[in-house]
Amino acid sequence: MTYGGGGYWINPGPGNKNYWFVGWVLQRQVTDSLALGGEIFHQTSFATGGPGSPGFPLGSKDTTGFNLGGTYDFDQNHHLLFSAGRALQNASTTNAFSYYLALQWISPERRERALCCGDRDRCWPPIRSLSHRVRRRQFCG
């Protein structure tokens, strides 16, 4: 699966400026429980960034970077989310290395709502086949 997007952030405050962000993801479901992927992104600078300004030089330069990560589903309600990456452009002032590790719990009530409301990205099991669509129809009435 592949998807992407972007946006324009309004970033008020002293030393801040509005900025653009765009990214693209390539993701593959490796097993029923494991999905792995990678993303590339670009963000314009979000700070005016002169010497002596708060956090200088952080945010004062555009950055392009990548992340590799995935999700592991322990069961219908418990998931491990992980990601690591770095900047490719201006890495020393933007992102030399970053990582993310989290446990996600989805309440049974939320999962049932997702199955019934058509929230495809939050459904369990993911709606990838006709049998999953039939199961959702049977479960939701």
Give an overview in words.
The protein has 141 residues and is an alpha+beta fold. It has 2 domains: 104 residues, no CATH class; 35 residues, no CATH class. Helix content is 18%, strand content 41%. A 6-stranded antiparallel beta sheet has the order 1-2-3-4-5-6. The radius of gyration is 19 Å and the shape is elongated. The chain starts with a strand and ends with a helix.
Structure characteristics:
single chain, alpha+beta, 2 domains, six-stranded antiparallel β-sheet, disordered C terminus
Helix and strand run: EEEEEHEHH
State the total count of DSSP E strands.
6
Walk across the major sheet and give the strand order: 1-2-3-4-5-6
Cα separation of the termini = 29 Å
Mean pLDDT: 79
Strand content: 35-45%
Tally of separate helices: 3
| Major β-sheet profile | 6 strands, antiparallel
What order do the helices and strands come in, and which of them pair?
Elements: E1 2-9, E2 19-29, E3 34-43, E4 63-73, E5 78-87, H1 91-94, E6 98-105, H2 108-117, H3 130-140
Antiparallel strand pairs: 1-2, 2-3, 3-4, 4-5, 5-6
